[in-house]
Amino acid sequence: MANSNSVKVVEVCRVAPIPSSPDSATSDQSLLTLFDLLWLRFLPVEPLYFYEIPSTSDPNIFFNSILPKLKASLSLTLQHFLPLAGNLTWPQDSPKPILSYVQGDAVSLTIAEFDADNFYHLSGNDFVDAKEYHPLIPPLEVSDQRAAAMAIQITLFPSRGFSIGTTMHHAVLDGKNSTSFFKAWAHTCKHGTGVGSSSFISLPDNLKPFHDRTSLKDPRGLGELYSNEYLNREGPNNRSVTHRGPPKALPQDQIRGTFEFTPAKVQTLREHAVKTTRASDSSPLHLSTFSLTCAYTWVCLVKAEEIKGEKTAMIFGVDARSRLDPPVPETYFGNCVVGRVAVAETKGLMGVDGLVVAVKAITEALRSLEHGVFNGAELWVSKFLDFSLYDKIYSIAGSQRFEVYGTDFGWGRPKKIELVSIDKTDAVSLMDSKNGGGAVEIGLALKKPHMEVFASLFAKGL
Ligand SMILES: CC(C)(COP(=O)(O)OP(=O)(O)OC[C@H]1O[C@@H](n2cnc3c(N)ncnc32)[C@H](O)[C@@H]1OP(=O)(O)O)[C@@H](O)C(=O)NCCC(=O)NCCSC(=O)CC(=O)O
User: Fold this and answer.
1) Is 253 designated active site?
2) Buried b (16+ CB within 10 A) or exposed e, 7-41
């Protein structure tokens, strides 16, 4: 078990974007879109990256070299991501919340230190008590009137490594953006010209955020419809920009585990699905890495948690950027994700054809995209999902496409990445694998007995 010493806060400071030239933007303001509003009440996203410190003769390498570089590059990177240094408000005269940055706004950065022995425990492969990650994530400054977009915490594990934890307001950005921000910061840190330099580091095109929320067209006025919903649903004229709190009683005995799907494992699942699909099933199954990974996880979860109800659901996000008409750039900054819900009979998931039942449900949910991402939107903006219909609703956070393990600040690939928020949102995290090679990893937070059964089902295979 890890040393239970608590995290010691060394410094709390604020990092502002450095203007890179005299004509750099000094302010930025945008109205939230429908896509942002959908996430307004969601809990913040909490990615946590662990990096090993290279062995060196300088015991103070972190404070002498690494930390100053991280701070300087953060400041330079924020110049490209001004909204992340800003705040959300919802003035009385505004139809929707406003995300604004004005000169002087800055990101809260906490520097902390934790017992070195915790490093390999928290960044290793063993199960970890979910609560152990919480001190590595900073609080976000939020009130009903004003919410910061992001807070960052860098925690040193002396002579071992450091972690970078962030808390990001979900109405400000989606998983793709948060990954791009980390990659842009890492790029600037790795290729920067030195501490104290205010020189502008140009980002590769795929990391340059495209900031124009008005480019998301909403001819049916769904954003207004949805914001009116908010204003009326939660008390009269409720303009709070605070997310809902975590569930009242977070399970105390949750542990976290990571499981890997190698390309060979995915191929085995694919072949199994093809073999067990009935000849009478005319419509082809969507047998991508994503659908097979989610389907197998779903089946193992239903069995491990002994779900009893008639139906269970799995919600996943779909990147809408290229699916909109007209599309928006891949680098569009702001939420651009729509939810899709796969529904299956629990009995079917538990049966011998469980994998195919799950893949079929995911295929059907994806098929609805053929009619456009806004098909039936008037219904789901006013009543997204009737939770009472399902005994259990699973969800997927993140994507293996984001290639988060490619985030190198100059000291190598991350040793481990956790999406800490999944223990509050009950989601399954999905990302590329820390072992590379085209593998995918999922992260779970479950009660210990359920995790043990899940691990054994996962290892056993089909
Ligand atoms: C809807 C999807 C999940 C479906 O994914 P699939 O992979 O099943 O289907 P697909 O049609 O997109 O791709 C099918 C095949 O084409 C290939 N392919 C297609 N596009 C690709 C691309 N851009 N990069 C790499 N591969 C690609 C894949 O190899 C895949 O096969 P193969 O994989 O077998 O090789 C995805 O399209 C998508 O939108 N992903 C992003 C979801 C997202 O943004 N999530 C974050 C939500 S916000 C969040 O999570 C934050 C939070 O709340 O915490």
Assistant:
1) no
2) beeeeeeebbbbebeeeeeeebebbbbbbbbbbbb
